[in-house]
Write a structure and sequence with these properties.
With about 290 residues, the chain is α+β, with helices and mostly antiparallel strands. The chain is about 30% helix and about 30% strand. It binds manganese (II) ion (2 copies).
């Protein structure tokens, strides 16, 4: 890997880690999701980066893809199982990391939270160039199952490229039989999710996170100029134009923009997540967000 590219990935990782730790310190009973998300993103910008994607604050049975909207009054409550998922970019080189906290630290979900951390560590220990995706998934599944929980089978890790948060390789959270190998010089995110019930998420309502659609990108368009091809928040569009709702509606109508739905299980389910970004180099495995 080019030394300059490597340095930028490392810097993005360091900043992403700092943002995640800061975010975890802000999640408390009565805190507004909007304030927490904006504070985390401000920290990234104040330190010379940009968010890789909008801060995700997904609660309880939600696994991913909820980001607060402008005017959002939603607050954290004691006992909430909160997935904080954030990343930073430096010149388009991205990091992506996540952790789970139980609001108020009652400890009811400590094992659920701990098992995804352990699963992530076990997955990282398997890494070497040309390991298959299914072997990484198998390590994750083994740890989560041994704690009596279900790995979420339709979520997983992914390759990362410049300005591309979800590039082609998929890293499953179980042994899905996929023999695709991780080539040297690949940057990946590994993200085990564990569920107390089913282990399969479905699409909920829109979570206020959008992305430009691949085939129709106009490089002189305002969203591309501000966010390139990484996901962006409705809040960020509101910051650059007054009629943001109408503009997003129009861009979705012409299929130039798509919206991520919140990914969730049924209401009694609780889900935890842990995530790191890792560089799989020919001679070295580097966790950029550690
Ligand atoms: Mn993530
Ligand atoms: Mn990810």
């Amino acid at each position: 890997m080019d030394q300059d590219v490597k340095r930028k990935y490392l810097e993005a990782g360091k900043l992403g880690k700092m943002a995640l730790e800061y975010g975890a310190s802000l999640v408390s009973p009565g805190a507004k999701l909007f304030d927490v998300a904006e504070s985390i993103e401000k920290l990234i910008r104040d330190n010379g980066g940009k968010p890789s994607f909008p801060v995700n604050l997904s609660i309880n049975n939600e696994a991913a893809h909820y980001s607060p909207f402008r005017g959002d009054q939603k607050k954290f409550s004691t006992g909430d199982v909160v997935k904080i998922d954030v990343g930073a970019q430096v010149d388009g080189y991205l990091s992506d990391n996540a952790t789970t906290v139980e609001v108020g630290e009652g400890g009811k979900y400590s094992d659920l939270i701990q098992c995804t951390r352990e699963a992530l560590n076990a997955a990282i220990r398997t890494l070497r160039p040309m390991i298959s995706a299914r072997q990484v998934g198998s390590a994750i599944e083994g740890v989560i199952s041994s704690h009596g929980f279900k790995p979420v089978r339709n979520l997983g890790g992914h390759g990362i490229r410049r300005y591309d948060l979800h590039s082609e390789i998929f890293i499953p959270n179980y042994d899905d039989g996929n023999a695709t190998q991780i080539k040297p010089d690949t940057v990946i995110a590994i993200e085990p999710f564990a569920s107390t019930t089913i282990g399969m998420v479905h699409n909920g309502p829109g979570g206020n996170i959008y992305i430009l659609s691949g085939t129709k990108i106009r490089k002189d368009e305002i969203l591309y100029q501000n966010f390139n091809t990484v996901p962006f928040a409705e809040r960020w569009v509101a910051d650059i134009m007054p009629d943001y709702k109408e503009y997003l509606r129009k861009m979705m109508g012409s299929k130039e923009v798509s919206q991520f739905p919140v990914l969730k299980e049924h209401s009694t389910s609780r889900i935890s997540q842990a995530e790191h970004t890792i560089m799989v180099l020919s001679d070295e495995i580097i966790v950029t967000t550690k």
